[in-house]
Design brief:
Elements (H helix, E strand, L loop, with lengths): L11 H10 L5 E5 L5 H6 L3 E9 L16 E2 L18 H10 L10 H10 L4 H9 L2 H8 L22 E9 L2 E5 L7 E5 L5 H14 L8 E8 L1 H8 L2 H21 L4 H18 L1 H33 L1
Antiparallel strand pairs: 1-7, 2-4, 2-7, 3-6, 4-5, 5-6
Length: 317
Amino acid sequence: MSGGWNTIESDAGVFTYLVDNLGVKNVQFEELTALDADYLAQQRPVYGVIFLFKYPTGEASQSSDTPKDGAFDFNAAENLFFAAQTIQNACGTQALLSVLLNQETKVEIGPQLKEFKDFTTAFPSDLRGEALSNSELIRDVHNSFARSSPFIDEAQRLRSEDDDVYHFIAYSSINGILYELDGLQPAPIAHGSCTFEEFPTKVIPVLQRRIQRYPADEIRFNLLAMVRDLRLRAREIGDHEWLNREEQKRSGWQWENALRRHNFVGFTGEVLKGVVRSKLQDRGELYNDWVEEAKAKTRARMRQKGSTGRAFEKAES
């Protein structure tokens, strides 16, 4: 099993440039803020959706042949790409590949992903997962979009029981069936017949049923649609304002992705040094006053925290 996969964000800009760096042509991701079939249909063609949710670690494991919704299709792996997830933090990239590698007739996936798919075609799902985890190309592109942290090495850090665990899965219409592709499950989950054109309408009820299994106050979900590059459609219909908005969106994504590659601890430290130096140059008394003011605020917060804790204990008793 390969190591060194870092956490990436569920972000349209991250996923768009991730697939772009893998050699995929004319694909982008759009964040969906509502489960609205009409809005999703407006993004056509929709190759699939990537769903992020808080993984219910406290639940008892389900039976190997009865998912909570839909039905396992154990024979589907012969006709589609499905890989078991064999390593921590890889599920985001694995979910988007689950869509891309099953939409090869509609999407230009590029020579490198084409070679990877051809190489793993005859593999069972667990070996496909191992092949994906050990792909230096895919891992390096994936990690290039992880947030830089000077304090945590994601490759070495193990999850604790107190951590919130999030998981990515994919939905796509493949061979006339709506499939849920989750590398933590033993097989693709079929949700009934579904043509490519019907996908926006038929996937929404499936997502709604899944979200309804959570408490009403759980809102930590994210949904990204994999669609054709919207700039192409804007050019085709001659909508220059739309094209300009899409180009500005791309510029914003590139800027945000560049920021993700850097940590600002050194910069922050230099700013603090400059502030302290300025205080010392003004007058030593001002610096001492500044330190005493900070200490007073800290003591006040500690007193407030202590009183809150005592009030809570009284309420419990």
